[in-house]
Design a protein that fits this description.
Elements: H1 4-15, H2 22-33, H3 38-42, H4 52-63, H5 68-72, E1 74-77, E2 80-83, H6 93-105, E3 117-121, H7 127-135, E4 140-145, H8 148-160, E5 165-169, H9 174-178, E6 183-188, H10 201-206, H11 220-227, E7 232-241, H12 247-257, E8 261-267, E9 273-280
Parallel strand pairs: 3-4, 3-6, 4-5, 6-7
Antiparallel strand pairs: 1-2, 7-9, 8-9
Helix pairs in contact: 1-2, 1-4, 6-7, 11-12
Length: 281
Amino acid sequence: MPTIGEVLKEQYDLAKPYGVMAMDLRILIMHNEGFEEQIDVMFSKEKEMKHPDVFRAQVQRLIKGEPVEYVLGEADFLGRQLKINENVLIPRSETEELVAGITERIGNYYDPRNYLVAADIGTGSGCIPVGLRQSFGNWLLIASDISPKALDVARENFDRYNVRAQVLEGDALAPYIENHINLDIIVSNPPYILNQEDAQESVRDFEPASALWLDKEHSVYESIFRDYKKVKKESLFMAFEISPDLEFWLEDLMKKYLEDYTYEFAKDLNGFTRFLYVFVK
């Protein structure tokens, strides 16, 4: 059997012209060989590779542009390995920042130790409820999505990490209104990309279109702002992931629908306006 170092060099030489990164190859080997860190791959080059043909087949998928997370069927989110597939977005660092932003701000509006009811609209893999549960054990979490296949993935991740969360199928606030659920917190990472050309080719080709592209005539943002009174308990805190070019449009939507509110746009670690936090009294 060939060694890890031999197969890694062979496949890197093959895949490099297609833009495949060495880091992604190490991630695959780490997963396949049962290593805990990428550095373990570097220290184990002389060991025999257990399943070289599996690794070579995975590299072929990378060469075709498929993200390494889909190849593995897993993605890291706040230190948790979440199951993903083609029915859900790959969790990204910006959404980790969204969860952190909620954690930093929620104490300005509520006692976070209380039994607050928090809804994740368009939950996808369920990464946001999984992240929130790490900090807020008392919250009543609800995850909804228009895609039943996405909800199947979310349920698996909730089961994996023992996250108690109610799961609802439906668009925007519709399932909450239908079930007469009142909310303290709304979180959403909805479709927000206006121009498909702005997205990487791997995103356009492999991630679910329904979770990517924004139609301003039928947006989750507008649906939530329009219907918030139907689910609002006493006050309501809302947190959204957004695209930087939506700032003025979102301000106009808030002026159109919201009453007695304050808001804050916040930048991500790369300096782009990426989050909108709203409090309605």
